[in-house]
Q: What sequence folds into this?
């Protein structure tokens, strides 16, 4: 596929959006600084003949202070091309819907400032996932991997009676604290070259989720042992080659590689133990 | 819904511009590892010329045995001298980055792994430059 061949430039119909015209006042956009940003957005739609060949569309979006990539995408869709398709929900970095490949790196659209990026800002769907339409990818393989580590609290023994709370020590809470931040956005798994080429590798998000429960003392030793088995089987932690891509892109700053390495060390110790 | 568009693996190789320090460290570690394996076989082949040479002590004393002639012949080729500098660079990077990976495996300083890679590259560069007068003939050494 060639990017330039498929370039289609969308020009806004309303001239007020084009700040290059010096005589046009921008009175209707109160926050606007009068500047625009150029976005190159990946387009693909199997149902529209002209978009079956994947390519890039160029959008010029009026910016304002604090504008995020998601804001710019919403502006592009609402004001210029209603067929532009992308996922978003909470708009504040909690739901994990809008992980995108922005200027060569996996980032959350809603946590990335337009002003921090070099123009033209290139926005692509998450790599290593099949593209359904425009920026929307099929996340099935990611969710399958997440489910494979049994991502739910599952203690050895039920509480003595259903009103008893299960306390966690402060120290243990600190151990799992960072791993609980995961929002299932899939940025890390998309950035991992091994997870991308080996569909069977659990990938950083799933291993982190496994670590979150493995390290939780309230589950008990038997369950921890089972979890270690799941995480270290041949499609587990040993496929990690410490490229640190996942840790670099995680929008929640989870030390993913550290958790994977911790599981590797614990698995080695458990395997060496003969008593 | 139509058929999803699969961008394939080819695009991955176009993304090297975006590689992080950890990715470059991984790529270089693989490449230098394969280079060292390749050298190992070449090394064994050259050393094995000593086996027929060993049966002729007079030739060894005169410096005309097969092994000595092989080594001298190879060292006479300028390209081989240059490749030796490259081999040293590969070996030093593989060692220093190997120490970095050891620390990563022990869980030490994972948040500084990028710096570890830069140190590996710097140490490799310094040692490689210092080795040039050892490997290359004096007339081509720029200093």
A:
């Amino acid at each position: 596929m060639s990017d330039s061949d498929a370039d289609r430039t969308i020009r806004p119909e309303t001239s007020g959006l084009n700040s290059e015209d010096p005589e046009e006042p921008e009175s209707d956009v109160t926050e606007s600084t009068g500047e625009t940003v150029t976005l190159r957005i990946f387009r693909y739609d199997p149902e529209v003949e002209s978009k079956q060949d994947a390519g890039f569309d160029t959008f010029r979006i009026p910016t304002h202070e604090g504008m995020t990539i998601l804001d710019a995408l919403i502006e592009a869709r609402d004001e210029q091309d209603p067929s532009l398709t992308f996922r978003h929900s909470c708009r504040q970095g909690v739901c994990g819907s809008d992980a995108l490949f922005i200027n060569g790196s996996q980032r959350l659209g809603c946590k990335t400032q337009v002003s921090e990026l070099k123009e033209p800002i290139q926005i692509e769907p998450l790599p290593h996932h099949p593209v359904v339409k425009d920026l929307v990818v099929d996340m099935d393989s990611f969710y399958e991997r997440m489910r494979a580590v049994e991502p739910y609290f599952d203690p050895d023994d039920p509480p003595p009676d259903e009103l008893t709370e299960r306390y966690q020590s402060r120290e243990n809470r600190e151990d799992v604290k960072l791993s609980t931040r995961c929002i299932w956005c899939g940025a890390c798994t998309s950035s991992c070259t091994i997870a991308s080429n080996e569909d069977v590798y659990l990938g950083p998000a799933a291993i982190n989720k496994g670590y979150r429960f493995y390290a939780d003392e309230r589950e008990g030793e038997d369950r921890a042992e089972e979890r270690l088995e799941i995480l270290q089987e041949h499609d587990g932690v040993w496929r990690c080659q410490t490229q640190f891509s996942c840790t670099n892109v995680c929008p929640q700053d989870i030390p993913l590689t550290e958790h994977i390495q911790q599981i590797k060390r614990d698995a080695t110790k458990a395997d060496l133990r003969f008593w | 819904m139509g058929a999803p568009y699969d961008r394939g693996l080819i695009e991955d190789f176009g993304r090297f511009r975006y590689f992080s320090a950890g990715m470059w460290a991984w790529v270089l570690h693989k490449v230098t590892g394969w280079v060292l394996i390749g050298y190992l076989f070449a090394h064994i082949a050259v050393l094995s010329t000593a086996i027929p040479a060993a049966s002729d002590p007079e030739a060894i004393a005169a410096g005309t045995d097969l092994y000595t002639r092989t080594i001298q012949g190879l060292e006479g080729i300028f390209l081989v001298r240059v490749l030796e500098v490259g081999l040293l660079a590969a070996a030093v990077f593989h060692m220093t980055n190997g120490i970095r990976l050891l620390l990563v495996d022990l869980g030490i300083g994972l948040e500084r792994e990028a710096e570890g890679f830069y140190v590996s590259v710097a140490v490799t560069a310094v040692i490689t430059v210092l080795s040039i007068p050892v490997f290359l003939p004096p007339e081509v050494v720029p200093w």
